[in-house]
Design a protein that fits this description.
The complex is a heterodimer of chains A (482) and B (96). Helix content of chain A is 37%, strand content 12%. Chain A is α/β, with parallel strands linked by helices and 482 residues long. Chain A has one domain: Amidase signature (AS) domain (Amidase signature (AS) enzymes), CATH 3.90.1300.10. In chain A, the strands form two sheets. Chain A has an eight-stranded mixed β-sheet with strand order 4-6-5-10-11-9-7-8, with helices on both faces. Chain A has a three-stranded mixed β-sheet with strand order 1-3-2, sandwiched between helices. In chain A, a hairpin with a 5-residue loop joins strand 10 and strand 11. Chain A is globular. With 96 residues, chain B is mainly alpha-helical. Chain B has a domain of 36 residues. Helix content of chain B is 34%, strand content 4%. Chain B has three helices and two strands, in the order H-H-H-E-E. A two-stranded antiparallel ribbon of chain B has the order 1-2. Chain B is flat. Classes of the chains: A alpha/beta (482), B mainly alpha (96). The interface between A and B is large, with 70 and 49 residues.
Chain lengths: 482, 96
């Protein structure tokens, strides 16, 4: 039985009818993780703990007995959570993140922790303390990042669904590179309690699936207000996996921002996205050109705000209470400084320095406050567009398909430019997803991004579902065929 | 702006980090490129724009002040790199 190609609801049905038990199902995925270990999608697996969970889970719930992959910045009680940093390499959380509690309350099984850029700072999953993750479509190439492990796991069908996090595109860009579906919901839709913080005003958990339906279904499990996270919002959680199948998209106004079709956009990506737009039009949607005039300022804004918040968030890693502590230190100052310097990677240090600078006296107004003002303008662009011009926005997810490993690690600015199409949405706190829309001439997947108004994940998922059904692409990498 | 090695060294101290000469030069060089890119924001006149406080405009969020059970000491200390009894152990702060 090819269990790894089944949808979540099919697996649920098999388990509820006792045609397979959770232990067999979970072992099937653990065996596949082992078989495709070259991809390095997971940085921590504890077979014994995972299989123990399969003997005692909550029955007759949405995920009863089904294993799911967890990005290694979601705290999992009793199972290592490292954010793929040396500073947390032996950290065993004393409590669960609310997202994890929600999974357990719905009967889910923790399959293991997926690889990521250290503290989610990166766009290629090459900045992990546990080695880089490879793209299942071409092992020479990166899976995108920072949630590259989760995206690669779903692409290689070593997990049915996976949790990711998206601060500036860290779900949508790897989804695009790996030929899977990935959604970042509205800021506040999923609790951040127990999620290792990078930039708190931008961080948002989300999910990956090999289909829109699985993605929508898993999103339902994670969503909801949490008293432990004051930034989570009390909004009703719609039945996303049912909404996507209701009605059609006739008359839906799809805004296409001209600022996203710029120099630097790969021609094959452009063509594939334009074909997808034509497909949406053939399904009854109305394509309208719109303008998001401050798009070109988003990247500079992000690289002020995100490092500023990171420099503050990462000050907690001091070598005292938990995490790595340097040996033979002379005094307390030496302990702080050496513990942090020996255990943080270069990219993390760079962002701490940038963040410390833009928050420092004399530069705070010129950089940080200015960036927060531009952020207001970027958010207003979206508000204006959704007010009377369009219902959803469609654009490329990334300017290129997956690039080769090592190609951009020596040039931070080139790496940052990867996120030019995903960052504006985080600054505005809105929901967005990436769904596969074609392939380039090298056979690498291309994703189209569909963005929505606040709390309107239902409409973007429905649009993506219609497109997915209509395109009917074969999204199985050659590596796992046969 | 011209971001110098002196800027980097000062920020390393503020951020409780240390770096050798080569690392300082590498940080200065990449930061210079990044800060040059940020100057793009100077093209905009934002004098009348309010800075973003929260994407949904939320301010204070209140909840009932209900007592709940807190984490026990053993669990709270399980990740401490060095401990003595029920305490985290650190190097001496005040000279003997």
């Amino acid at each position: 039985m090819t269990l790894h190609t089944k949808k979540l609801k099919e697996l649920k049905e098999l388990i509820s009818k006792n045609e397979i038990n959770s232990t067999e199902l979970t072992k099937h995925f653990l065996d596949r993780i082992e078989k495709y270990s070259d991809i390095n999608a997971f940085n921590h697996i504890d077979q014994e703990q995972t299989l123990e969970q399969t003997k005692n889970f909550i029955k007759d719930k949405k995920l009863s007995g089904i294993p799911v992959a967890i990005k290694d910045l979601v705290l999992t009680k009793g199972m290592k959570t490292t954010a793929c940093s040396k500073i947390l390499e032996n950290f065993i959380p004393p409590y669960n993140a609310t997202a994890m509690t929600n999974i357990y309350n719905e009967g889910g099984i923790n399959l293991g922790k997926t690889n990521m850029d250290e503290f989610a700072m990166g766009s290629s999953t090459e900045y992990s303390h546990f080695g880089k993750t490879k793209n299942p479509w071409d092992l020479e190439r990166v899976p995108g990042g920072s949630s590259g492990g989760s995206a690669a796991a779903v692409a290689a069908r070593v997990a049915t669904v996976a949790i990711g996090s998206d601060t500036g595109g860290s779900i949508r860009q790897p989804a695009s590179f790996c030929g899977v579906v990935g959604i970042k919901p509205t800021y506040g839709r999923i609790s951040r309690y127990g999620v290792v913080a990078y930039a708190s005003s931008l961080d948002q958990l989300g999910v990956f699936g090999s289909s829109v339906e699985d993605t929508a279904y898993f999103l339902e499990v994670l969503s909801g207000k949490d008293a432990k996270d004051s930034t989570s919002v009390n909004k009703e959680v719609p039945n996303f996996s049912e909404i996507i199948k209701q009605g059609d998209i006739k008359g839906l106004r799809v805004g296409v921002p001209k600022e996203y079709f710029i120099d630097g956009l790969d021609l094959e990506v452009k063509e594939s996205v334009q074909n997808a737009l034509k497909k949406l039009e053939s399904l009854g949607a109305e394509i309208v050109e719109i303008s998001l005039p401050h798009t070109e300022y988003a990247l500079a804004t992000y690289y002020i705000i995100a490092p500023a918040e990171a420099s503050s968030n990462l000050s907690r890693y001091d070598g005292i209470k938990y995490g790595y502590r340097a040996k033979d230190t002379k005094n307390l100052e030496d302990l702080y400084s050496r513990s942090r310097s020996e255990a943080f990677g270069d990219e993390v240090k760079r962002r701490i320095i940038i963040g410390s600078f833009v928050l420092s006296s004399g530069y705070y107004d010129a950089y940080y406050i200015k960036a927060q003002k531009v952020r207001s303008l970027i958010a207003k662009d979206f508000t204006d567009a959704f007010k009377d011009k369009c219902d959803v926005i469609a654009c490329p997810t990334s300017p290129t398909t997956a690039f080769k490993a090592g190609q951009k690690t020596n040039d931070p600015m080139t790496m940052y430019l990867n996120d030019v199409f995903t960052i504006p949405l985080n600054l505005a706190g809105l929901p967005g997803l990436s769904v596969p829309c074609g392939f380039d001439s090298k056979g690498l997947p291309i994703g189209i991004q569909i963005l929505g108004n606040a709390w309107d994940e239902g409409t973007i998922l429905k649009t993506a579902y219609q497109l997915e059904q209509s395109l009917n692409l074969d999204l199985t990498p050659n590596l796992i065929k046969g | 702006m011209n971001f110098t090695d002196e800027n980097t060294k000062k920020l390393l101290i503020l951020a409780k980090l240390s770096a050798n000469t080569q690392e300082v030069k590498a940080l200065t060089s990449s930061c210079n490129e990044i800060f040059s890119y940020m100057e793009k924001l100077n093209e905009l006149d934002v004098s009348s724009v309010k800075p973003m406080q929260h994407v949904h405009g939320s301010s204070n969020i209140y909840r009932e002040d209900t007592p709940i059970k807190s984490m026990n000491t053993d669990l709270g200390l399980q990740n401490a790199p060095n401990k003595a009894g029920d305490y985290i152990s650190v190097p001496l702060i005040i000279e003997e």
